[in-house]
Design goal:
Length: 353
C-alpha cells in the first residue's frame, strides 16, 4: 500500500469549539452563526491554498457547535472543489456502528469526488462513551474490530460475514463504495502513547501527532516506532502528520498579542486532563503553561517566523504534513481568524508550494 501524499503539505482545522468550556447551552441563532463560520473558514482555506481541511469529533460539550465531522465534511464537499476533506480525528468507539460508518464515509467520498481522508483514534473521554452507551474499558477491541469491518466493507467485492466481540454481521455488502478505490480512502491513525502509536502502523499509512510541545528524543522514538510497524504491514511510504497551533501577523508581537491568551487557556485545559506529559516531561506544573515557554511549539509570528517554524518541522522533525489551527475556543475573533487564513495563504504557503 502506498499513501497518496507525495510532498510536504499544509492543511487547516476550523475548530468546532466556540466559547468557554462548559458554557451555557447556546441558542439556535448562536449555533447557526458558528456553523456558518466553520464553513466560511473552510472555503477561505481552500482559496488560500491549503491542501486540506480537517474536522474534529466531539460530543456532549456545550462549547462544541458541530459534533459529527462527517456531516460537516459532507456540507464542505458541496462548497469546495479541491481540498482534502479529513477528520482529525473521528473516534469509532464513540458509538459508531462500523457498517454505518463505512457507508457514511463512502458517501462523503462520493460527494467530494474522492477527497476524503479519515484520521481514526481510540478516544479518551468517558462522557462521549457514556453518551452512546459504550463501555469505555472495551475500547481497544471495539476500535480494532471497527477498523477491520470498515476496510472489509470498502473493499469487498461480494457479501461478507464478520463475527467479533462487539459486532456481528452475516452476509452484508456495502454499496455504493467510496469514490477512491486504490484500495480505499486514506486512513491515518491518532494516539499519543507508545502502544497506540505502534498500533497505528498496523492499520494506517500515517500517524498524527497532537498540537502539544515536542521533546525530540520522545518524538524520534514515536515516529520510528510507527514507521517500522507500518512498513512491516506493507506501507511503502509511511507519513508523519503533526497538528500545530499558531497565527501569522505583521510581527511576532502582534501575533502573540492576538493569539496568546486564547492559546494558553486551551493548553491549560489539556494539561488538566494529564495529556501534555506524554509529549514533554519538562512541563511539570500549570505555571509552565505560558506563551513564552510554549512559543517553540507554535507556528506564530511574522510570515518569516512561520516559514522558519514549518521548515524546522519538515526538516528536523521529518514531518510530512502539518495541520494548522488559528482559532481557539476563546479567540481570536472570527474576523481576525479569517484574515489570518488569507495572510497565511498569501505569505507562507507559496514558500512550500
Amino acid at each position: 500500500m502506498r499513501d497518496k501524499l507525495e510532498k510536504f503539505s499544509i492543511g487547516y482545522m476550523p475548530d468546532t469549539n466556540f466559547g468557554q468550556y462548559g458554557r451555557a447551552e447556546p441558542d439556535a441563532k448562536t449555533i447557526k452563526r458558528c456553523v456558518d463560520q466553520l464553513i466560511t473558514e473552510a472555503v477561505i482555506a481552500e482559496r488560500a491554498g491549503f491542501e486540506g481541511v480537517f474536522i474534529p469529533e466531539r460530543h456532549m460539550r456545550t462549547e462544541t457547535m458541530f459534533p459529527n465531522p462527517l456531516i460537516l465534511l459532507a456540507a464542505l464537499a458541496t462548497r469546495t472543489e479541491r481540498v482534502r476533506l479529513g477528520t482529525y480525528s473521528l473516534v469509532p468507539t464513540y458509538g459508531w456502528d462500523p457498517m454505518h460508518l463505512a457507508e457514511s464515509a463512502a458517501l462523503v467520498d462520493q460527494l467530494s469526488g474522492g477527497r476524503l481522508s479519515l484520521v481514526l483514534s481510540m478516544g479518551v473521554l468517558p462522557d462521549s462513551w457514556r453518551m452512546f452507551g459504550v463501555d469505555g474499558t472495551s475500547r481497544l477491541s471495539r476500535f480494532m474490530e471497527c477498523i477491520e469491518v470498515l476496510k472489509k466493507a470498502w473493499t469487498s467485492t461480494e457479501p461478507f460475514s464478520f463475527h467479533g466481540k462487539h459486532f456481528n454481521y452475516e452476509n452484508v455488502y456495502l454499496t455504493p463504495k467510496p469514490f477512491q478505490r486504490d484500495p480505499h480512502p486514506t486512513i491515518w491513525g491518532g494516539g499519543q502513547v507508545a502502544p497506540a502509536i505502534k498500533r497505528c502502523g498496523s492499520f494506517a499509512s500515517g500517524w498524527c501527532g497532537d498540537p502539544f510541545p515536542l521533546n525530540m528524543d520522545i518524538w524520534k522514538r514515536q515516529t520510528d516506532a510507527f514507521r517500522e510497524e507500518a512498513r512491516a504491514h506493507g506501507v511503502e511510504n509511511p507519513k508523519i502528520v503533526l497538528m500545530r497551533d499558531g497565527f501569522v501577523a505583521n510581527s511576532r508581537e502582534e501575533a502573540e498579542r492576538t493569539y496568546g491568551e486564547a492559546f494558553v487557556s486551551e493548553m491549560l485545559y489539556y494539561y488538566d486532563l494529564g495529556i501534555l506529559a506524554h509529549h514533554d516531561p519538562s512541563i511539570r506544573s500549570r505555571s509552565d503553561i505560558t506563551i513564552e515557554k510554549l512559543r517553540r511549539s507554535l507556528v506564530i509570528g511574522s510570515p518569516a517566523d512561520c516559514i522558519e517554524a514549518l521548515e524546522m518541522y519538515r526538516d528536523k522533525y521529518q514531518v510530512d504534513y502539518v495541520v494548522m489551527r488559528f482559532r481557539m475556543p476563546l479567540g481570536p475573533s472570527w474576523e481576525a481568524t479569517n484574515e489570518c487564513i488569507r495572510m497565511f495563504g498569501e505569505t507562507v504557503l507559496p514558500h512550500f508550494s
